[in-house]
Amino acid sequence: MQALKRLIPVTLLAVLTACAVPAPVAGSAPDTGSVLLVREQADPPQPLLEHPGRPPANGYVWIAGRWDLLEGRYRWQPGNWVAPRPGQVWQAHVWRLAGDGWVQEGGRWVPDVNRLVRPRQR
Question: According to the UniProt entry, where is the signal peptide (predicted)?
C-alpha cells in the first residue's frame, strides 16, 4: 500500500507532462519553395485561431500559421500575408498520419489548375 501511495504522484506527473503543449512562439515566414517532411510520433496540436486582419494590399494571400516540430517540441509559427504569385496558389502545410507517426508536408506554391485557360488564336 505504501508503494502504491508513492507511485500515484509519479504517474500523475508523467501523464501531465506528456499532455503539455508548448506555448506559442513567434517564428519566421513559411518556406515558400521546398517541401519539408518531418516525422513525429505524437499527434500534432490543433491549429490556433488567427485573426489576420486586412491584407497590406489587394490580392495578397494569407498563409495560415502552423505547428512545426523544432527540437523535439511542437512550436506555433504564426501566419502572415504574402504577395501573390501569378498563376500559382498557396498549398498549406499539412500533417498526415503515416504508419506509426505523423508526417508534415511543408506548404508551397503550386500551379493554379483552376485558372481560366485562354482560347487559342486561329
Answer: 1-20
**Residue 18 CA from chain centroid, whole number:** 20
Q: Report CA 108 to chain centroid distance, whole Å.
A: 12
pLDDT tens for each residue of 57-69:
999 999 999 998 8
Tracing cell 494590399 back to the chain, one arrives at 57
Q: How many residues does the chain have?
A: 122
Q: What is the pLDDT of residues 25-70, one digit of tens each?
A: 333 344 444 444 555 567 888 889 999 999 999 999 999 999 988 8
The grid cell for 20 is: 503539455
- Residue 86 DSSP class: T
Cell (9 digits) for 7: 507511485
pTM: 0.57
